[in-house]
Specification:
By secondary structure, this protein is mainly alpha-helical. About 75% of the residues lie in helices and about 0% in strands.
């Protein structure tokens, strides 16, 4: 029996190695680097227009990709349950796993923002930082909180697809005009509504307005993965190129426009992120399980740890040198050390 188990174990490891020959882990590592690139202003040494294009055509792909990837793997869990209580249990486990780093690193970011707020406006500034953290968690944790909120909403409404689609479309549309497409509503009654919302709620980048759409796209992708697998690689690759071309058009249109927040949201981004993820599943790059685990660890460490090094030392380096590249190199190296 022991010899049989050993053979089975060896066969399983071989199968895992063969199956683990897609580009998902490599892409996660690359997208994590993109997120660090945004937060360290690495492109600030470039001309303004080139900075805009590199930031929005490359670096801004990171967060939507992680939304879709997170939704995809969470959707795999939801798909095996017909009972809402079982889906809620999945959400509870998801929140427990992600809640610990959320509160820890979000707390680290909040302390820094409170100190900055106190320096600028005294106690009032610190209180404002606390208020802002409820609606836009610091330390890049808005993404984590959005995933948890989106997971809960999707789990509850999992069998009510039309309602979910409606929430996703309306929510993401509102997020767009609170962000990159703010210029569309200038001098209209909607502008007053958006300005009032942003005054009190800081940002529309949250689980309701962005998470349900982008995290939900990942869940949708998993639910339809059998049908999508029947599409040829060529069709997926061409669709990805077309979607990326549409993003280029959006980036060109929005250059030098009046935007709000971080100008990170685009119409095509959820679809493009799904196509990039599907492309990763189809790209065959054989590598060992050990390398796969290293890449996963790299991307997780880079995402969770970079805000600490960036906030407490990286910003100081940028202030002294006015060079985002130095800041980027420092943060990336220290996270891995």
């Amino acid at each position: 029996n022991m010899f049989h188990d050993a053979l089975v174990s060896f066969a399983e490891r071989r199968i895992i190695f063969m199956e683990k020959s897609n580009g998902i882990d490599l892409m996660k590592a690359f997208m994590a680097v993109c997120i660090v690139g945004i937060h360290t202003q690495v492109t600030n040494i470039l001309p303004e227009k080139l900075d805009w294009y590199i930031t929005h055509m490359i670096f801004r792909l990171g967060v939507p990709f992680f939304f879709v990837a997170s939704g995809y793997f969470f959707g795999r869990k939801l798909s095996v349950h017909n009972c809402i209580m079982n889906r809620i249990d999945d959400v509870k486990n998801y929140i427990i796993v992600n809640g610990i780093p959320f509160f820890f690193w979000g707390g680290v970011g909040l302390v820094w923002e409170m100190l900055l707020g106190f320096k600028r406006k005294g106690i009032e500034g610190s209180i404002q930082a606390i208020h802002n953290s409820f609606f836009y968690p610091f330390g890049a944790m808005w993404f984590v909180s959005s995933c948890m909120i989106a997971a809960l909403i999707i789990a509850i409404l999992y069998n009510h697809k039309k309602i979910l689609y409606l929430i996703a479309i309306i929510g993401y549309s509102f997020a767009l005009i609170c962000n990159t497409y703010y210029w569309v509503i200038i001098d209209t009654p909607i502008q007053n509504v958006v300005d009032l919302y942003l005054q009190y709620f800081v940002s529309a980048r949250n689980g309701l307005f962005v998470g349900v759409m982008e995290f939900g796209c990942g869940v949708w992708l998993y639910n339809h993965h059998k049908k999508i697998k029947t599409f040829s690689d060529k069709k997926i690759y061409i669709s990805t190129i077309v979607a990326y071309s549409i993003l280029l058009v959006e980036v060109i249109i929005n250059f030098n426009q009046c935007v709000r927040d971080d100008s990170s949201l685009f119409l095509i981004m959820p679809i493009l992120s799904m196509l990039i993820l599907e492309t990763c599943f189809r790209i065959r790059i054989p590598y060992s399980i050990r390398l796969s685990l290293k890449l996963r660890t790299f991307s997780k460490q880079l995402f969770y740890l970079h805000p600490f090094f960036n906030v407490y030392i990286g910003y100081v380096l940028f202030y002294l040198t006015n060079n985002g590249l130095i800041q980027f190199i420092y943060v990336s190296i220290n996270v891995q050390i």
